[in-house]
Design goal:
S-adenosyl-L-methionine, SAM-dependent_MTases_sf, Rossmann fold, 3 helices, 29% helix, 4 strands, 112 residues, 24% strand, alpha+beta
Length: 112
């Protein structure tokens, strides 16, 4: 569809994030930017590990659960710096909140 619309500088991949990342690792593909929007359970452990290994320059994490977001960010902060975090009240008058977080790869991550 993107070629039909004249877009030549982008690639689109369809599949679960876990499937896509495993195939990217096998192929040696390294995306510049990755956007994840996991379920309330947060990122699957294998996917989180894959993101840390593939090391995209930027990561956008959309979360519907502050607890699992905090858990995943604790792992991601080893290699990434939080540049922006925006809560979004999509369901007023409820306790539910979405958060959009932009992370960038650290130039010299410290070992923890």
């Amino acid at each position: 569809m993107h070629k039909k619309n004249g877009i030549t500088n982008a690639n689109y991949t369809v599949g679960t994030a876990e499937q896509v990342f495993h195939s990217w690792q096998d192929e040696g593909y390294k995306p510049d930017i990755v956007v994840v929007d996991p379920p309330r359970t947060g990122l699957e452990t294998g996917l989180l590990r894959s993101i840390l290994q593939v090391k995209p320059k930027q990561l956008v994490y959309v979360s519907c659960n502050p607890s699992t977001l905090a858990r995943d960010l604790a792992q991601l902060e080893k290699r990434y710096r939080i540049r922006y975090l925006q809560p979004v009240d999509m369901f007023p008058m409820t306790a539910q909140v979405e958060c959009v977080v932009k992370l960038t790869l650290k130039s010299n991550p410290k070992k923890k």
